[in-house]
Amino acid sequence: MDISSAVSIVTPLLDDIRERGLDAVIEATARFDGVNLATTRVPQAALDAALAAMDPQVRLAVEEAARRARLVHEAQRRTDAVIRVSAGAEVMEKWVPVQRVGLYVPGGLVAYPSSVVMNVIPALVAGVESLAIASPPQRVAADPAFIGLPHPAVLAACALLGVTEVYAVGGAQAVGMFAYGTSECAPVDLVTGPGNVYVAAAKRVVRGTIGIDSEAGPTEIGILADSSADPAFVAADLIAQAEHDENASCLLVTDSTELMDAVDREVAHQLTTTVHRARVETALRNQSAYALVNDLDQGLDVVDAWAAEHLEVITVDAVERAARVRNAGAIFVGPWAPVSLGDYLAGSNHVLPTGGSARHTGGLSVQSFLRSMHVVNYTREALAEVAPLIDALGGAEDLHAHVAAVRVRIPSGTDD
């Protein structure tokens, strides 16, 4: 998760896209994805074909995930408020959606139709008018018709949610395309969605040119557990997160050596039937750890300092202890709320801050796609009431033109 080092790698690529547009994106796609594109835009026929071929059970799952996510995210939608400061003096807090957003759906090792849901639903609830999705093209595919296109499960989810502007572009080049635009893709105002370290680095570089949600890079799980936790559950959750990426980070924090040893045995046992065993073992070996603490209060200090993307609290007092957590992208309470639930059907959003940024940044929400705008409406009398105070503050700051801009409206001596 060394984003600073990755910045030096992606910056020349982003500069090239800013200068040469589509040609640079196509060349980067050939270089990094091994796919030669004639066009980056996914044709509507491919979206329709993917939806028509979608497994009915997968479609049902995506529809239910979208329904639950919509329930949660509609509750986040803020309403405009008018605040009366004094007689004739009003300030409106107005919430305005971003006009155009680029939504990134990763697809290097795994296809993520669930990430389509997590990006699209809050944007739609916020009222965003223009949505574009980018996801990496496939070099090989079960259906040859989808070679050079994003995974059909991603395309089907896009079609199911009504997104028609989709691009077969992945990695840092997708962020560059959204930031600077090409002859096929108009630039956006905001880019959201998780990705690898290069996607996170590209977001850091373009931030300011466009808005970003967060630098959401390789996934993380922290588990705070005591002796009451089922070691099979804990081991399964560590393996599940490691399955995402060999750079995934998994941390068990416990005050129980017995649990730690039991989890270690369970991990070894469950690995024998894990499909992506090599990837999981790499993540568990290189990016993960057990942390033995004196007590659970110290354990809270550890998980707060690490500020994991996902934090499970599996203790006898899980509800109360989870309420004391200050830093986490999302918290999963007790044995029956695994992170896998949050990835798909909890209703919460799974686009969450990583790399310790949960200390200052929250997950993707409706607010991510809204801007607060103050609308100020004062009468002459209300301005006259504060004119002497503006005299004082403008004078204190040596900004006399500020004072004059009020006094040209309210001449001295007419404040009453």
Strand-helix topology:
Layout: H1 3-20, H2 22-33, H3 44-52, H4 56-74, E1 81-86, E2 89-97, E3 100-104, H5 113-126, E4 130-134, H6 152-160, E5 166-167, H7 171-180, E6 190-192, H8 197-206, E7 211-212, E8 220-225, H9 231-242, E9 249-254, H10 257-271, H11 277-286, E10 289-292, H12 296-306, E11 310-314, H13 318-322, E12 330-333, H14 339-344, E13 370-378, H15 380-396, H16 400-407
Parallel strand pairs: 3-4, 3-6, 4-5, 6-7, 8-9, 8-11, 9-10, 11-12
Antiparallel strand pairs: 1-2, 2-13
Helix pairs in contact: 1-2, 1-7, 1-8, 2-7, 3-6, 4-5, 5-6, 7-8, 9-10, 9-11, 15-16
Termini separation comes to 62 Å
What share of the residues lie within helices?
A: 40-55%
Q: Which of globular, elongated, flat, extended, rod-shaped describes the shape?
A: globular
Low confidence ranges: none
Name the structural class. Answer: alpha/beta
- Biggest sheet character: 5 strands, parallel
Q: What name goes with the CATH superfamily of the largest domain?
A: Nitrogenase molybdenum iron protein domain
Mean pLDDT over the full residue set: 95
